[in-house]
Amino acid sequence: MSHTAHIPSHRKPRRSASKTALRAGVAGGVLSTIAVAAAAGPAQAEPVTQTIEMPTLTTGLSTAVAASAEATQQVALDLETQAHEDAAATTAAKAAKKAKAEAVRKAEAKKKAETAAKAKAEAALRASRSEARTTLSATSGSTSVAPSSSSATGSAASVIAFVKAQVGDAYVSGGTGPNSWDCSGLVQAAFRSVGVDLPRVSQAQSTAGTQVSLSNLQPGDILYWGGAGSAYHVGVYVGGGQFVGAQNPSTGVVLRSLDYDPPSGAVRVL
Asked: Does the N-terminal or the C-terminal CB of the chain have fewer CB atoms within 10 Å?
């Protein structure tokens, strides 16, 4: 065995033939290019035209178009909705105007009917009073009633004093005093002052005592207008051809001559 058999070699490892050939080829190509360029001299280089491929925008464009279409459709729907709302508002306004006109018409018709009914009632009242005057004239030969020949005494005098003390008080429908009265409320209070209880309403008061002739009246008699049992007004005869009664809201409680408004009849309670 040689004494150098175990000494490692210091030579570089041998490169493979393929790598060596590749490097040689590259180097040769570079040297060839340099040689050709040098031989060509300062010839002007041709401009290099480079084609740039633009990215495809199909996907983004489709999304934008779709969004635009959706927005347009939404605007159309909003306009259509607004149109429907405007039409509904116009229809409602027309209906409200028509309803208001109808309400006004009905109110006017009601007012006319009430006015006509009031006029009819007043005409009936005037006719009733005219009939009462005619009846009184036929039975007594005059619209005046002979005054009593004697002065009131006792309870009758107290009743007369009571009603005369209320002259000037207000007339209020349903009033029973002490400062406002209706016709039957005043008569009831006057007789109650002497301990006589009378019915509350004029219809019942017109039949509360003995019927007497208008030509034979005495102070303290109850006068009534209308029929006995259906009278619409009452008062108290105070003598001297006069009576006291709560007539109406315009006059209140008054002292009047029988010729002012001749009664239909009379009853005597005292």
From this structure: N
Q: Which class does domain 144-268 fall in?
A: alpha beta
Closest to 157 (Cα-Cα) out of 124, 181, 191 = 191
Strand-by-strand arrangement of the 265-268 sheet: 210-212, 265-268, 222-225, 233-239, 242-248, 252-257
Closest CA to 214 of 199, 200, 228: 228
Q: Look over the chain and give the mean of its residue pLDDT values, rounded to a whole number.
A: 78
pTM above 0.70, yes or no: no
* 167, HSE (Cβ side, Cα atoms, 13 Å): 12
pLDDT at 37 over 50: no
What's the distance, Cα to Cα, between the start and end of the chain in Å?
185
Render pLDDT for 74-87 as a digit per residue (tens, 0 to 9). Answer: 888 888 888 888 88
Q: Among 164, 183, 163, which residue's Cα sits nearest to residue 173?
A: 183
Domain boundaries, the chain: 73-143, 144-268
Q: At what angle do helices 183-192 and 154-165 cross, to 10 degrees?
A: 140
